[in-house]
Write a structure and sequence with these properties.
The chain is of the alpha+beta class. It has helices spanning 4-10, 24-35, 54-74, 81-92, 113-140, 155-162, 191-194, and strands at residues 46-51, 96-103, 144-148, 168-177. The protein folds into two domains: 4-185, NADH Oxidase (3-Layer(aba) Sandwich); 187-217, no CATH class. Bound molecules: flavin mononucleotide. Residues 12-13, 15, 146-150, 186 line the site of flavin mononucleotide (FMN).
Length: 217
């Protein structure tokens, strides 16, 4: 097992995969890792559909691409045929697609609508934690993965394609496979841009530049 910090730092979004199947045992491990994420009220408000068959991947990929094209048309944006094809291929050709759905099942019912909105925030935060566990476990097992937000933009379409009941909300896709690329780490913000000390805006002085400014190189 890699040092946790090293694993976190070296995980990259991998968007190209070898044409090699991912063993079911690894997929299971990744999904169990997701279930060990923290969640508000321990509600575990995530559900996953694992797509490994070409046909189901193709159906969802095409449905999402069509929905995207319709959105672009609404915005009067001309669709590039190549981009359209890439949007299908990216999902249809990935060895494994995990569709992550959020649910309010197990979350609290608040009498105040404003506080109820917070419950939704908590469910989404919990799903995010599970997603990060998925990505890190995939990385730890030598797999490449990428989080894609496409389903969030076409929830009804994805629900229909995969017969998902209304109370489960398609949120994201994680595509997984053996990596076929080695991307350079995108830059990270430096401490001063995202950390403050004691009060908003007050600089958090860095003591160890090794672990901060140079962390993504
Ligand atoms: C909520 C969320 C949505 C994302 N959606 C997409 C996406 O639709 N397409 C994509 O190529 N990458 C997507 N990504 C991956 C990010 O682009 C990537 O994490 C970021 O550029 C940093 O790169 P790294 O993951 O290699 O560190 C998404 C990541 C997150 C957390």
């Amino acid at each position: 097992m890699q040092d946790l910090f090293e694993a976190i730092k070296h995980r990259r979004s991998i968007r190209k995969y070898q044409n090699k199947p991912v063993p079911q045992s690894l997929i299971e491990k990744i999904l169990v890792a997701a279930s060990w994420a923290p969640s508000a009220h321990n509600a575990q408000p995530w559900r996953f559909i694992i797509l490994t068959e070409s046909e189901s991947k193709q159906v969802v990929a095409e449905a999402m691409a069509e929905s995207w094209a319709a959105d672009m048309e609404k915005d009067n944006v001309k669709i590039d045929e190549k981009v359209y094809k890439v949007r299908i291929e990216r999902f249809a050709s990935a060895p494994v697609i995990i569709l992550a759905c959020a649910t309010m099942e197990g979350m609290y019912m608040q009498p105040d609508p404003e506080r109820q909105k917070v419950e939704r925030d908590l469910a989404m935060q919990s799903l995010g934690a599970a997603m990060q566990n998925l990505l890190l476990m995939a990385h730890a097992k030598g797999l490449g993965a990428c989080w894609f937000c496409a389903p969030s933009f076409c929830k009804a379409t994805v629900r229909e394609a995969l017969k998902i009941p209304d109370e489960f909300e398609p949120q994201a896709i994680v595509a997984i496979g053996y990596p076929d690329e080695k991307p350079i780490a995108p830059n990270r913000k430096v401490f001063g841009e995202y950390c403050f000390k004691n009060i908003w805006g007050k600089v958090f002085y860095v003591q160890n530049t090794q672990t901060t400014f140079k962390m993504c190189k």
